[in-house]
Amino acid sequence: MAASGGSMEDVVKYFQQTREFVDDRLREYMGGGEPLLDILQESINYTLFSGGKRIRPLFCFLVGELFDIPRRKLVSLACALEMIHTASLIMDDLPHMDDGQIRRGKPANHVIYGQDVAALASIGLLTKAYEIVLEDPALSDDKKVRVVSKLASVVGINGMVGGQFVDLKYSKESMDFSILDYIHLHKTASLFVASGTTAAIVGDATKEQTDALESYANNVGFAFQILDDLLDVRGKVGELGKSMKQDKGNFAKSYGVERADQLVEEYTGRALESIRIFDGRNNKLIALGLMLLKRKS
Ligand code: IPE
Ligand code: IPE
Ligand code: MG
Ligand code: MG
Ligand code: MG
Question: What domains does the chain contain, in order, with CATH numbers?
């Protein structure tokens, strides 16, 4: 499964293989069920299997490689990260949030299934994420508690939920950097941080190693959201696969596309600097950072 080297081509191949691997495992977790829930399940699967980039599970597996963690020990965690992320997208598109009409190249979940079902699909996915980690026989009880506790804190009020709240309620045309910083770090970077640091928990990383990964993830996550804001302004819906000009707080709108471009480079640079302590083993993480810098969707 692991790509043999660290070139961009290898990472692209690894990315593709990992995406397929994650899709297969997600399908196993989502299979079967009560017939009365068919439409709810269909709605969950509709967004879950409509072609996300699976970046968070990929990052989780790349951290796993640093610590030689057998892949089977990261399967539930990687799938949980993707479930949390997909739940956040379904929620984010709801009419009272960003009112997104297109997601992952198709009509948004609520456009097809209605707001009531979409809200339940989002909460159902979010909850399933914790369930699959807690029920994973490959992880010790101690690891499960630490992983789930981390996930809950980055998703909750002081994490993604808080970031989304500040985005909705405090965003305006011209914004203080400190507020945008809060939004980007909480609504987006926090789940990147969780993807790396929870894998680090499974791999018994030292504090220094965990701090390095946290810094990488924070910086990549920040760059990722600024680029997302840039794409919201100058991307193409066909390429992006989601509605444009729907986002609330937008760095490129507040500070201009030039400054945004500069910061994407700057934060990516900082991210790559942070993982120098893994020299010799960090090629794929470097390639991931550079690949995210060039993404068009
Ligand atoms: C989009 O995330 C939402 C943000 C945090 C900006 P992705 O760009 O990773 O979305 P998918 O999973 O590929 O659809
Ligand atoms: C949302 O940010 C981040 C989430 C937690 C979902 P955006 O509102 O910019 O995400 P997109 O552009 O709709 O994917
Ligand atoms: Mg956006
Ligand atoms: Mg949005
Ligand atoms: Mg939003």
Answer: 8-293 (1.10.600.10)
